[in-house]
């Protein structure tokens, strides 16, 4: 089984981006840990990042086209704005697990609305890089 891990804008800067909020792990560190964990469970991950909303839409559609078992999605800032990403989640049959390093509900009010949550199977937030691992464990069980 293959699991897509899709990351949105500014997550390429993890490690140096507001480390007091997002931690010091880089996105490559997170990808490495997830890869190990997936392999140990006999699965593989396809890990991607883009700063462009439409790429995330294309990749959600691709997850369905290639028969991915699940998608882990940290849509970053687009979480709180993107009807197009929500529509893509709803358009596919692949379960989507929402991931955030921080807990958006403990932050500014504009982060309290998540379009992604309206289509996601579950949300894993507030555990730093570990949020991805918790989401992977859940995705491996679907
Ligand atoms: C984030 C939370 C979002 O509110 C923010 O825009 C991000 C990162 C997180 O992983 O904590 O870019 O998705």
Automatic annotation (TrEMBL):
It catalyses: 3-dehydroquinate = 3-dehydroshikimate + H2O. It comes from the Bacteria. Substrate binds at residues 74, 80, 87, 101-102, 111. The active site is at 22 (proton acceptor), 100 (proton donor). Pfam families: DHquinase_II. Pathway: Metabolic intermediate biosynthesis; chorismate biosynthesis; chorismate from D-erythrose 4-phosphate and phosphoenolpyruvate: step 3/7. Homododecamer. This is 3-dehydroquinate dehydratase. It comes from Sphingorhabdus rigui. The lineage of its organism: Bacteria, Pseudomonadati, Pseudomonadota, Alphaproteobacteria, Sphingomonadales. The gene is aroQ.
């Amino acid at each position: 089984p293959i699991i897509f891990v899709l990351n949105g804008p500014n997550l390429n800067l993890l490690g140096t981006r507001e480390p007091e909020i997002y931690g010091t792990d880089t996105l490559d560190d997170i990808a490495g840990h997830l890869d190990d964990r997936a392999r140990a469970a006999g699965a593989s991950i396809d890990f991607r990042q883009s700063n462009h909303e439409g790429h995330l839409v294309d990749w959600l559609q691709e997850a369905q086209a290639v028969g991915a078992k699940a998608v882990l999605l940290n849509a970053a800032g687009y979480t709180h704005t993107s009807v197009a990403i929500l529509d893509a989640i709803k358009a596919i049959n692949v379960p989507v697990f929402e991931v955030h390093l921080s807990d958006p509900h403990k932050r500014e009010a504009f982060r309290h609305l998540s379009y992604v949550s309206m289509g996601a199977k579950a949300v894993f937030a507030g555990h730093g890089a570990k949020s991805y691992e918790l989401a992977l464990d859940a995705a491996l069980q679907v």
